[in-house]
Amino acid sequence: MHVPDGFLNAPTSVATGAVAAAGVAIALRKAQGELDERTAPLAGLTAAFVFAVQMLNFPVGVGTSGHLMGGALAAVLVGPWTAVLCLSVVLLVQGLLFADGGLTALGTNISLIGITTVVVGWVVTRAVLAVLPKRPASVVPASAVGALISVPVAALVFVLLFAFGGEASLSLGALTASMLGWHTLIGIGEAVITGLTVSAVVAVRPDLVHAARGLRPALQLKQADGTLAPAPAPEPEPVGAASRGSVKPLLIGGGVVALALAGIVSFFASSNPDGLEYVAEGEGFLDRARDHAFGDFALADYGEVGGIPVGVAGILGVAVVVAVGVVLFRLVAGKSRPAGAAAGSRQENAVR
What we know:
This protein is mostly helical. It has one domain (10-217, 267-351): Arp2/3 complex 21 kDa subunit ARPC3 (Orthogonal Bundle). It has helices at residues 10-30, 39-54, 71-78, 80-97, 106-129, 139-165, 172-204, 248-263, 275-283, 310-336, 339-351, and strands at residues 58-61, 64-66, 220-222, 228-230. The strands form two sheets. A two-stranded antiparallel sheet has the order 1-2. It has a two-stranded antiparallel sheet with strand order 3-4. Residues 233-244 and 339-352 have low confidence and may be disordered.
C-alpha cells in the first residue's frame, strides 16, 4: 500500500509528513531502551527481511495482489519503537532508490505503514498475549492476529486521509468498502507470513523475540520434601565466549534467507497491481498519481526501468537497507549505554 505522489493534496501530505517526522523522532529516543550491542544487528536484519518480503507480491483475488507491510512482525521481533525505525528505513530506501512510493507521500507512507501498522500490530499482539498462556509459543498466534488487524486498519486510515485531502471526488462509502475488503484479504496473507516468521525465530531463539520477554517461566527445583524452590541463576559467561547465546548464527541464517527471497523468489512475485492501486483504478482516481521524481533511475520499479534483473535489484536493496539500518541502530544503541558501561567495555577489550 505504497501511496504515490498525487493521491493526496499538499496540506494533507505536509500534515502526514509532520506526523511521520514526530513519530520517527520519538522512536529514535524510545528505541534506546530496546536496543543494545546484541539486538542492534538483529534490528538491521529485520529491516532487510521486511524489505525482501515486501518485494514478494502474492495474489489475493482476480487481478490484484498484496504484500507484507511488516509493522506487526517488526514490532514483535525488535520492539515497537525500533520497528518504526525499521519500516522508516525500508520506506526511505524504496522511495529513493526504487521509486516505490512517492517522495511527497513519504510522510504518508511512514504514517500508514511505518507507524499505524506498528502501533496496531503491537497493541493487538499484547492484548491477545494477555489472555493466552504465558509462554513464548503464545507470541506466534498473537502476532498473527496483530498482523491481520493492522492491514485493514491502515487501509481505513488511508480512507480517512483521502476524505480530508483526496485529489478526486468519489463515494467514500464505496472507497471504504473496496479498501477494507481487499486489505482484509491482504491481512490474511500478512498474518500467515508474520506467524511463520515469528514461529521460526521463537523455535530457535525465543530470548531474542521482544514480545516474548517475560513469558519464559522461571525454573524451579523440587526439594527433598517435595516443595519447589527457584533455581539458582546461571553463572555469567566470559566476555566473547562462544555459546548458544551468540546471535551470529541467527544473523547469518536470516541474512541468507533475505538474500534468497530478494534475489531468487522475487522473480516469481505476482505482477498484478497491489490492493491500493487496484482500488484506485476501480474507483477512478489512479490517473491522479504523478510520475515519481526518480522514475527514470535505473533501479526504478526494482530494475525494470534500467533493464536490471529484479533479483539483482533486490540483493542491492537488501545490502543498502542492512548498511543503513545497522549504522542507525548501532548509533541508537550506543546512546543508550551509560558512560561507565562503555568505559568498562573498552577496558575488557584492552585486557583481551
